[in-house]
Amino acid sequence: MATVTFRDETAAGRPVTEWEVAGLPERMTVRELIGLRVREEVARYNSHPGDRFNGLVRPDDAETEPNGHRLREPRRIDGERQAGITERAFLANGFFVLVGDRQVEDLDEVVDLTGDPDLVFIKLVALVGG
User: Fold this and answer.
1) CA 94 – CA 66 distance, rounded (Å)
2) pTM of the model
3) pLDDT of 57-114, one tens digit each?
4) Cα(7)–Cα(95) distance, rounded to whole angstroms?
5) For residues 99 and 81, what is the distance between their CA atoms, to the nearest angstrom?
6) Over the range 53-77, which residues count as b (16 or more CB within 10 Å of their CB) and which as e?
7) How do beta strands 118-123 and 2-9 pair?
8) Residues 6+ apart with CB under 8 A from 69
């Protein structure tokens, strides 16, 4: 079984958050890893709902703020719906993923997890007027 470290970084390389998930198969697709990551962050939020969600992508009816997304009121978030939103964001270049120091570009690419890799997620910020 493998362990993966999920880490968010800014475009400048500054770490934002990091956590590990153990007990994974030795090989998973990028799609599976993104889904796993999103379902994990949604499960953490749903266990203690509040007015702020700190996830990779914004849930429906939330406002993006510098350190997460503000919900109008605490509520349960649907992890499967959020995973679908995240896949679409990946395909639209809303963020990119590094495995080790290599960028992955295909959701169906298989990643070897036997070396306990770091998966780095970097959100791209839209420029005003751009």
Assistant:
1) 16
2) 0.89
3) 889 889 988 778 999 999 999 999 999 999 999 999 999 999 988 999 999 999 999 9
4) 13
5) 24
6) bebbbbbeebeeeeebbebeeebeb
7) parallel
8) 52, 53, 54, 55, 58, 59, 62, 63
